[in-house]
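User: I'm putting together a teaching handout on how multi-component assemblies are represented. Below are the sequence lines for each component of a complex, exactly as they appear in our records. Could you produce the 3D structure of the whole assembly as structure tokens, so the students can see both representations side by side? Please keep the chain order the same as the input.
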Amino acid sequence: MRKPNLTINDIAKALNISKSTVSRALRDTHDINPKTKLRVLEFAAKHDYHPDILAQSLRSRSTKTIGVIVPAYNIPFYSTAIGGIQDYAMKMGYNVIVCHSNEQYEIEIKNVEALLNAGVEGIIISVARDTEKNEHIKKLKNKGIPLVLFNRVIEDFKSAKVVVNDYYGAKNMVDYLIKTGCKKIAHITGPNNLLLSNNRKEGYLDALKDGGIEINEELIVEGDFTIQSGIRCTEKLLEDNEGIDAVFAVCDAVAFGTMKVLKKRGIRIPQDISVAGFTNEPMAELVEPSLTTVKQPIYEVGETASKLLFAQLKDPDLPAELCVLETTLEIRESTK
Amino acid sequence: MRKPNLTINDIAKALNISKSTVSRALRDTHDINPKTKLRVLEFAAKHDYHPDILAQSLRSRSTKTIGVIVPAYNIPFYSTAIGGIQDYAMKMGYNVIVCHSNEQYEIEIKNVEALLNAGVEGIIISVARDTEKNEHIKKLKNKGIPLVLFNRVIEDFKSAKVVVNDYYGAKNMVDYLIKTGCKKIAHITGPNNLLLSNNRKEGYLDALKDGGIEINEELIVEGDFTIQSGIRCTEKLLEDNEGIDAVFAVCDAVAFGTMKVLKKRGIRIPQDISVAGFTNEPMAELVEPSLTTVKQPIYEVGETASKLLFAQLKDPDLPAELCVLETTLEIRESTK
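Assistant: Of course. Below is the structure of the complete assembly, with chains in the same order as your input.
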């Protein structure tokens, strides 16, 4: 009979050795006492630790492949981040395979299974919009698979993480809008179950507070990172409010949607309404007027996630590290 | 000793049975006479047909996963096409894992290895810019792995393929430019080892011929699908020539680069120079002026590739089919 709930932790306790030793034994690395390794493998076999012998065998023979799960194939942020992940992995002699969750938790679970079946040695994940549970990621940790979360992370889950300083990026941008004379600043947020959205919103709120501007809940609407949501939210903002003089969007795609609505209605950017985004996508420079935005070190986010993963591959006992990369303001023509 | 060159064909000939039967025996499907299956497996084992027993075992147990290789992570065309591939695969109960070749033949070879190790049941490929050889793809065919090429295909390699009608897309666009009064029409091509680039160039040349316009080689420069190459090529075109009244770019990204240069130099679009692209990326509608372009059914290209792959999974003997999807003109503000 299978005992699917046996974890590395259980094996470590039963044999009175460290989790790291168990993990290395199961991954068939060479920096381990052969006798200890045999004890671990025998115990694991006896208790059917890895029912999928084939996948396990494939894993243990070192596939030199890591897996990446991103929420969507059409968000330019992830394209660039994958570049950073892959370039570093290739330097280390590894292949990268990528899965897309289509922003759905159920698909994310299947992605994890597909990558495990593929024998990846470690996984880098940015979670789907609607991922609030973390059983699938816990399972990876229990299996001793090195793991790094990036960009969209789960707040209360302990693991290596790479994010940008969303709070300060937003705070600095809204400080800047206030400095240029904007007084009625709307904010289109991201989905509010994501840490990233909340941190950017906090930055917006604190900037208003510091600037002595009263918070008006009607000026805050929830989008979802797409151009379409930028269009929808901006139309709603303009219908419900008068005198808005700036829109701060959670990301560039949403800001492009905002610009589209304003231009269609003959509202001048930035003379009538300033528009600011967050990301610095390649197109931010090319739209007209060019978009003022918070510049994220996107490639570096991916590269850093890759570095943290390889550090874990080398040393499974590495403490979970949170890397926060800084952002800068990229001031262009869409703001006063 | 390994005999790496033994193919399904060889086994079929030696045992006097069909390739399809060999393929099914090796993939451990159930619609085959058990005795025949045994004969094939024994022969294959004796001649060491699949030295990698583990990967083979993993494959044969049906991983319900297909693999995709695309040349770059930052070309929006592929993001959308992957969407079409994945949505159809998911309907069929399959996962999709994606590899990026970074436009390099060597990485493409590694991608193929990574996907085989991952136990994918079929592969969909769009080849790298510098892929001229096809040994790695031949290998897949010899292993009996279902295969579909899409968008960037290798002309003289027989396999299922999905492309758009590049020739007519380009021909129709340049016909249109001529109809609107343009007489000195430049063309920024794609890399000239790719069928796609040559087909679009042929369309451009034939439209000029039909329009009674003499071909001027100085008006044709080679780009590489990036905004940067659009900038570089447009600067060269403007330096070497006078009186250009239209630029037809091999893709939208290149056209964005062209627009950037023209706007910087104060050249009016379309009054002084018309600009046309190819693809219809989401940004084509948002740049200013909005970009006239050849609209490709991108999602459908991916979806069709997926359909052809699953048809092969069902019937390995399916003849290699070439699907050519039609394009339409999307006339916007960047042309007269």
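A couple of points students might notice: Residues 178 and 211 of chain B are 7 Å apart (CA to CA). Confidence is low (pLDDT under 50) at residues 50-59 of chain B.
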